[in-house]
Amino acid sequence: MSGHSLDELKKQIPLLDYLQAHDWRTARQLSRGRIMGLCPLHEDHKPSFLVDPLKNLFYCYGCDRGGDVIRFAGLYRQVRFPQALALLRQWLGLPPLLRETTEFYCVQLHRHAEAVAYLYQRGVRSSEVIEHMRIGYAPGGCLRGWLTELGYSRLTLCEAGLVTAAGYDTYLRRVVFPLEGNLYGRSLSATAPPHRFLPGAKGGLYSWDQVRLFPDVILVEGLFDYAALWQAGFHNATCSLGTHHNARQFRQLCDFPRTVYLVFDADANGSGQKAAQSLAGRLTEQGLNVRIVVLPDGHDPNSFFLRDGDARQFQSLLEAAR
Ligand SMILES: [Zn+2]
After folding, report:
1. What confidence tens digit (pLDDT) does each residue in 13-52 have?
2. For the chain, which end, N or C, has fewer CB atoms within 10 Å of the first or last residue's CB respectively?
């Protein structure tokens, strides 16, 4: 990339916009338009992160690091310069492309009985939840042609991770769920890796804009757990796509003094419960009210509802949670 196109990229992504999109907030205004806030790059307790939106530069008095938006993306995502550039270009270009991909895959879902059957077998049965989550299906072998018709270059599609270097659709026989800036694909085939994401961040908590309005939220591990709860009428559920929570997801949970119900898998090796205990400790330190919900042995929220659990029984588990 030439110096000229680097400058272009920086102009297209003002540092402040990028920071705010990653949940950064101003703590106070200084002279000449400069602002201070908590540093996203280290554990910061008093605002030491200075941003100059006019110069598009930042500097942290706590961890002594500074630079432009590319430097920030590199430090924040812990990647080298070329990957930071790729992430920024993707951040810039993905949303409309992701929207079109999602719409295309939603249409495909209703044309492929095997996908609908798979969802049914996983307990995703109401058309409301399919619509609400914008669940689609990637049969493979047709997305590239469609997006090319819409004018996207092969390079753009490869960079977004939707098409492989060899020119094939990346997602093949996968039920797909659009996330904030990514696309999760669950394979129908037993031989392919079950989970797949596009390159880049998975984003924050699922459906957080809607869920954050509730004083009590239910946090589960996966999208099929989320779907089961949503169908049963628990619209205050969210999921983190795994038991590991990224910094952004953690901050989201803590943005209001709410009650958080943790409903992790009751797996035999106890890893779900261990993860719940550890997260509960960290959330409690932040002043949240945390309850750990204990499911019957071997269950996750999805299987609980799939094997005849109902909303009333789940409500009792919530009430029994400590
Ligand atoms: Zn810092």
Report:
1. 889 988 887 778 889 999 999 999 999 999 999 999 999 9
2. C
